[in-house]
Amino acid sequence: MRNERVGVFGLGIMGEALAANLQTDGRLVVSWNRSRKVSSPCFEHDIIKATEKSNILLITVSDAAAVADVLKAMAPALGKDKIVVNCATVSPDENLALSRRATASGAAFCEALMGGSKLAAVNRKLPFYLGGEKNVIDRVLPVLEPLSSVCLHVGDIGTASVAKLAMNLNLAMQLEALCESYAYARTNGLTDDQYFNVFRNNTGWNYLCEYKEPKLRSRDYAPQFSVRNMLKDIRLALQTDHTVNGLKLLKETEAIYSRGESQGLGEEDMIALLKLIQPD
Q: Pairing between strand 108-114 and 126-131?
């Protein structure tokens, strides 16, 4: 197995978790962020130096524009031994365009989109949806597999973006349904224990419910996955929708998340949508 030198570019919620676990694994050689985060392991503020130190470059920033900015900044240090791994959720066409930019600098490119949020990243339970050429994926897998519950090579570049957006639009709608179900039960007299005891024995119970139960009970809105980030993904799904009659429920869900952001909930966890139904 090659001694790959891994760098994490973008130290938000997910990037920090990945960098910490890669440091534990002895694989991290550098971490970079636009604003200084000197407490992060192996931090280097100069992106050219950070790029030179690593040959597997995990980009964990927020959107396609931010990924493009990172690629532009690191381009002078890219070359044939580098693999740019885009972990940011972008549209399929955006990932294809980003791939062309990376390969124009001599690097290889793949997408490795994360199917979980902060707790999954910390606990090494992230599913990764991978898109790209098999020889590139094969080099990246030994880095990602110790961080993950499963790594799924979906297909060519762009296919992992489709898979991630399909999963997230489903989660976005489920999350709103969970908040509405919970609010209905609580305002009609059920306690938390009564509600969750019944729900755990219902066919609607799943990992999302288990994951969000403690946050609902304690009204903990610290972000595992923020309203703003999910709204971004909902809008990407709507922009790339090719169904004949449109995603009507997703359009209604987009309006709810948009209202949440406009009312100051954008940086809070998705369960903060509960405040739109039943304020604390």
A: antiparallel
What's the CA dihedral at 147, 150, 153, 158 to 10 degrees?
A: -70
Do 181 and 67 lie in one domain? The reply is: no
16-53 pLDDT tens trace? 999 999 999 999 999 999 988 878 899 999 999 999 99
* pLDDT for the residue 143: 96
**What pLDDT does residue 188 have?**
98
> Among candidates 3, 7, 58, 66, which has minimal Cα distance to 31?
7
| 233: CATH | 1.10.1040.10
> Does 109 share its domain with 199?
no
Which tens digits make up the pLDDT trace of 69-127? 999 999 999 999 999 999 999 999 999 999 999 999 999 999 999 998 888 999 999 99
Q: Residue 104 is encoded by which pair of tokens?
A: 């124009």
pLDDT of 1 over the 60 cut: no
Q: Which range marks the domain in which residue 85 is found?
A: 6-156
Cα(265)–Cα(244) distance, integer angstroms: 33
Same domain for 177 and 118: no
Q: For position 280, what pLDDT does the model report?
A: 83
| Domain final residue pick, 156, 174, 195 | 156
Q: Which CATH number goes with the domain that contains 86?
A: 3.40.50.720
Contact 232, 63 (CB under 8 A): yes
